[in-house]
């Protein structure tokens, strides 16, 4: 699509936003309902498209693509009216009789750049947040999941307002051209390298961004855990979508003694999950393409393969693989794996594991498997990551009350649930003053001519309220003022001989 056409689409979305229709709460709810209906009525098509693009098992597509978004929409619809309300703000003494609040308002035209590994979820979840906050939106799905992208392009204009919401398909060239346009907010999910390109493009227009990136998400496990349960949770997180999940456990750290127990337990768990041959299991996915397959195979050249290692280039298959005798300097420890390969590094203590984590970029998530609160606390207090999941993997993403996002090179900003609404909303500060004489008297010392006395007086008024005063002292003052007025009125009526009850 020529860049001129991109400009026309962006202008249509901007015109629709300026017309005010997306700000209407009832309109937003209607669009969310339409999106919900689109997903429900076409779920089989979406699941089929995901399977064709990624070889993803049906249950993974149904639950972690479609149902994930449906749940997000339910959350938004339930809370949109309360989230969109102005939020009362604290006052100082000068404005004690005035109104102060924070008004959430939409940014305008939002660009969402989706990712290929969860092509439906990572396209529509940000879009749901943008709609809920009152923005118009342009969605650019990943070209690496072409069936999903075309399906979204076909269905979205049939269900959503075609002036407010648009889907643009294409490859890197189209994305580069699209990023030349001016947006009011950009939301990107993908690699750190491309995230930097998106950030640079946004900077030209001073456009705010959210970057959901990735990195090497570490796992530490000690001997206090239930090993069978830990292996089930750990390997589920590692093998879902064939390891192509941004928060999948990337590498594992444990003591040498525990490693000897862990390997047979992992073998048993993988056998329970996928049988003797994961390649023939309908529940194990495939690598996206041969380029990604070859990259993963190159990472397996160092260390000792103790589980798996098989691959089939004709079907982009790599078996769930565990590698030991891995050194922190090995190639597999220098980049995000994004596949079903699990390197194990032996450490002497939690402190050693923490040192390894802190020697690398801040991860998107950290997994700590331990029943010892003191061990968990060490990792919480001495590492930095986008999130932490204790005694499980990935499940924290299912809780919409928790923000999902990275820190440092693993991302910028967060979303899910209320955090999605906040991400796509500008927080506008508002002060509404009145013309009551008492309020004017309180602040008239600000006017010239100035004097030391006025300055001293204003310093006192501008100080924050001391903690011993109630935050809502103005309401309390009004209450007592009203009470005092009622008493005075009662006395007047009494002496006037008027019966008042």
From TrEMBL:
Aldehyde dehydrogenase domain boundaries: 7-430
Membrane is among the record's keywords: yes
Cited Pfam families: Aldedh
InterPro entries (alphabetical): Ald_DH/histidinol_DH, Ald_DH_C, Ald_DH_CS_GLU, Ald_DH_N, Aldehyde_DH_dom, Aldehyde_DH_NAD(P)
Positions of transmembrane segments: 475-496
Alphabetized PANTHER family for the sequence: ALDEHYDE DEHYDROGENASE (PTHR43570), ALDEHYDE DEHYDROGENASE TYPE III, ISOFORM Q (PTHR43570:SF16)
The family this protein is said to belong to: Belongs to the aldehyde dehydrogenase family.
Protein name, entry field: Aldehyde dehydrogenase
Organism, scientific name: Trichonephila clavipes (Golden silk orbweaver)
